[in-house]
Amino acid sequence: MSRVLGGSRYRAVPVLIGAVAVGAAALVASGAAADEQAAPVSLSVSGEDGAAPGEEVVLRTSVTNGDSAPVEGALLAQHVPEGMEVLEVGQGGMVEEGIANWGVGIPAGGEAHHTVRVRIAEDTAVDERLMSTACLLLDRDAEPTACASDTVLVTERSAALGGLADRATLVGSVGAGLVLVLVWFLWRRRGALRSR
Q1: Distance between CA atoms of 97 and 1, rounded to whole angstroms?
Q2: CA 50 – CA 29 distance, rounded (Å)
Q3: Residue 157 — left, alpha, or beta (φ > 0 → left; ψ -120 to 50 → alpha)?
Q4: Does the predicted model carry a pTM greater than 0.85?
């Protein structure tokens, strides 16, 4: 027995998923479990738990089909919050109104992995938490089968970089350092020539 989402074309369903993302966040926070027959969805953010404004982050969503029947024609929708700019949607997905969408087919016992590469907006406040929610819809007219969320904490730029965060400042600093090394080398050479 296969689960099929009517038709072979997928359209973004931003209004439904936007409303579901709010409900899913409450569902995930309360620890409510999805139906036992559902294929559970897990969402994880790659790299560090935090990212500074201007830095890129990859949001990874894994869908696992724990059922004995394949999942065919399902829709995976991942809400990308304000404060994140979508740079790339992997695995043939598309983005519409801040929601990345993929058509999903998973064999029984199989997994599928989907990625969205985003950049934290420059004007995002430090310590703000940006939450992304992913939901799997096995039937377009039904409630999501499973949802999961994860957050990215917006941090300050690395103290190790300090004022060297942009390319022009870095090039200028390296150039000034090279000039100082050259002056020191010429001064030592001049001193060596005088002592002869």
Answers
A1: 34
A2: 20
A3: beta
A4: no
Query: Could you read off the pLDDT of 139-160 as tens digits, one per residue?
Result: 888 898 888 888 899 999 875 4
Q: What's the angle, vertex CA 12, arms to CA 36 and CA 116, rounded to 5?
A: 80
d(CA 183, CA 194): 17
Q: What is the distance between the alpha carbons of residues 162 and 178, in angstroms, rounded to a whole number? A: 20
Q: Is the dihedral of CA 87, 42, 132, 127 positive or negative?
A: negative
Which residues, at least 6 apart from 83, have a Cβ–Cβ distance to it below 8 Å?
120, 121, 124, 128, 130, 154
| pLDDT reading at 63 higher than 80 | yes
Pairing of strands 50-51, 146-154: parallel
For residue 182, the surrounding DSSP H or E stretch is helix 167-194
Whether 25 and 144 have beta carbons less than 8 Å apart is answered as: no
Token readout for 132 is: 């992304």
Amino acid at 100: A
Residues 6 or more apart whose Cβ sits within 8 Å of residue 192: none
- How far apart, in whole angstroms, are the C-alpha atoms of residue 63 and residue 70? 12
Copy the structure tokens of residue 196. 């002869």
Across the range 104-109, mean pLDDT stands at: 87
CA distances from 161 to 31, 39, 49, 120, 171 (A): 40, 43, 19, 18, 13
Cα–Cα nearest to 44, from 60, 23, 24: 60
